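PROTEIN DESIGN WORKSHEET
SECTION A - STRUCTURE
LENGTH: 244
TOKENS:
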């Protein structure tokens, strides 16, 4: 087992719990291992209690390769994300309350983006997938992750992706933050969308900076999605300055 990845994964689980984004045994985290296979949090354990030595490794079909515990049943959603996105190294699933409120209400809050930085970090889409029973096909999830780095699951929660642990975690934080802002803006008349032209420029700048699906082909790094330390503000400034 890759010890650094294992420690990072356990720490991320603790962060999900500390933020109040999971309750009971909710939520799960996985990471792509450099030598093949995936490291995953065990099922039926509070995210507060996940330990590096209690993780499981699975193959691309979700079959447990090592570890004494069982893997969580939503592993098929994680594996669908890895299949859709070879650039992705980490998948995080949680039930953060504000974003999950929108997911339970059957609505997306990001159809008309309202913050420029978030368009660069997250893209202009947050696909909403209607409620699906456990064990339902993973086709819609796989398709959604071909287009976006985060997905709202109807009556369920959120999944985010990242090239590294930090990026996947920050995206979960951002989705929850935006959901909260959209909810707070509701009684004030709702969020006003950014001009379409600006959104378009921000999406193009995001791609150019190597962030998100399909960015690898044109990304500055040329090897996949840009990591967490990308200068988002700089990308925004540059994109919007060009509009004049
Ligand atoms: Zn869940």
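SECTION B - SEQUENCE
RESIDUE ASSIGNMENT:
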């Amino acid at each position: 087992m890759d010890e650094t990845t294992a420690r990072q994964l356990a720490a991320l689980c603790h962060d999900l719990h500390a933020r109040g984004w999971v309750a009971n045994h909710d939520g799960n985290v996985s990471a792509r291992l450099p030598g093949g296979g995936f490291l995953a949090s065990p099922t039926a354990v509070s995210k507060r209690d996940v330990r590096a030595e209690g993780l499981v490794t699975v193959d691309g079909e979700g079959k447990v390769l090592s570890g004494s515990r069982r893997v969580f049943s939503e592993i098929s959603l994680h594996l669908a994300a890895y299949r859709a996105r070879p650039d992705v190294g980490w998948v995080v699933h949680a039930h953060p309350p504000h974003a999950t409120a929108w997911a339970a209400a059957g609505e997306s809050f990001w159809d008309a983006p309202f913050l420029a930085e978030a368009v660069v970090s997250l893209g202009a889409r947050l696909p909403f997938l209607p409620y699906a029973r456990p064990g339902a096909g993973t086709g819609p999830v796989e398709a959604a992750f071909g287009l976006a780095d985060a997905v709202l699951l109807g009556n369920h929660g959120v999944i985010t992706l990242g090239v590294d642990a930090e990026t996947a975690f920050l995206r979960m934080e951002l989705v929850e933050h935006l959901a909260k802002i959209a909810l707070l803006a509701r009684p004030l008349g709702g969020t006003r969308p950014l001009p379409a032209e600006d959104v378009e420029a921000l999406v193009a700048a995001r791609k150019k900076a190597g962030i998100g699906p399909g960015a690898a082909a044109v990304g500055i790094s040329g090897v996949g999605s840009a990591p967490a330390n990308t200068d988002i503000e700089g990308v925004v400034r540059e994109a919007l300055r060009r509009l004049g």
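SECTION C - NOTES
The chain is about 40% helix and 15% strand.
Residues 90 and 165 are 6 Å apart (CA to CA).
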